[in-house]
Write a structure and sequence with these properties.
alpha+beta; two-stranded antiparallel ribbon; 233 residues; 51% helix; 3 domains
Length: 233
């Protein structure tokens, strides 16, 4: 029963009450009183139900407001970090403008970062040899590598096979492409495609070219040069 029905029931009880005095015998009056009580109980029950729904809606609105505030805070926090290659083929989120060596920097899982979670990568040494590992305890991923890149050398590092397939796709088609176009062509999910787009944007190999939805990107002169050099190497 909604508010309109609730009001209608209350009016019906009022109308019955107004007519009681006109009833001639006690039996009719008792039946009228019982009917009024029945309607009032129903009205009270529905009023409590509406009050409970209102309370639940108020709580939900408060939760949504808190979530909006959290997302606004996260967006501001997210802007402080960039996707950066820290070892050959290995990317993490680190604070923008970092000039110290990558080993001592705080590094955050790139996958979790895209899920609005700031998960610190824990570094460990592998017992055999001098290899290193980084582990994300949130998504349980672990990567093993030999050494960190020097900050000045990152732009010269070779892309991994998926990133190379994507940039060659741009080169071969000669047109603007979105992550939705690329993902099925190189047999990866849309999320993985977007992850590699971030890498190529960071390396300045592609740049957003339109304001379409989904956004499309074009190959830069630096990206074309990389493809030609990789073909000749």
């Amino acid at each position: 029963m909604e508010v309109a029905s609730l009001l209608a029931s209350a009016k019906a009880a009022y109308d019955i009450a107004k007519g009681i005095n006109a009833l001639k015998n006690e039996v009719d009056r008792n039946q009228a009183v019982s009917k009024i009580l029945e309607v009032l109980i129903a009205v009270q029950t529905e009023a409590l139900s509406l009050q409970e729904k209102h309370s639940l809606l108020t709580t939900k609105i408060q939760e949504l407001e808190k979530e909006c505030d959290r997302l606004k805070d996260w967006q501001a926090e997210k802007e402080r970090y960039e996707l950066k290659e820290i070892a050959p083929g290995l990317f993490a989120r680190i604070e923008k403008g970092l000039v110290d060596n990558l080993q001592s920097a705080h590094k955050f899982c790139a996958t979790c970062f895209e899920q609005n979670s700031k998960a610190l990568l824990q570094q460990e040494k592998i017992q055999v040899g001098t290899r290193l590992s980084l582990t994300c305890h949130r998504c349980k991923s672990t990567v093993i590598f030999d050494s960190y890149l020097k900050n000045s050398d990152q732009s010269e590092q070779k892309l991994d096979s998926i990133a190379e397939n994507i940039i060659k796709r741009f080169f071969d088609t000669g047109r603007d492409l979105s992550a939705n176009d690329i993902a099925p062509a190189v047999s990866v999910s849309i999320g993985v495609g977007q992850y590699y787009f971030d890498i190529l944007i960071d390396r300045k190999f592609i740049v957003q070219s339109t304001g379409s939805d989904p956004p499309e990107y074009s190959l830069t002169a630096k990206g074309r040069a990389y493809v030609i050099e990789s073909m000749n190497s």
